[in-house]
Sequence to fold (125 residues):
Amino acid sequence: MRITMILLCGACLSAGCAQASIQRDGFVLERDKTEELLATLLRRASFDLECPAQEIRCTVLAVHDDAGPDMPKQVGVVGCNKRATYTMEFISTAVGGWGGRGGWGFPYTHETGWRLDAAGVQDSE
Fold:
């Protein structure tokens, strides 16, 4: 039996999603976090492009791999004859002890959300 995995901006739509990582656009990505991040991006891009989510295609352009499994960092989206590039914004925070700025905790990164590239939404024609 052959199981086909369908990905729409990273949202896994089939029973073949039991693995911990997925291959996408030449990258090996952490499955759960990638699906979560791309689902969030899909909602944002649908609004910005004024395009139904099912008509939007995503391409992972760069990954964030400094802290654990690779996750999307920069993604190009195309839909309804428009295109845009988004970058995941990360902030450094600290854990352990009282943490915070200047705290003695161990630093790690935490995503804050997708930022539309300075070029904004452009026509793709």
Summary: Strands lie at 7-8, 11-12, 21-24, 27-30, 57-64, 71-79, 82-95, 106-116, 122-123. The first strand starts at residue 7 and ends at 8.
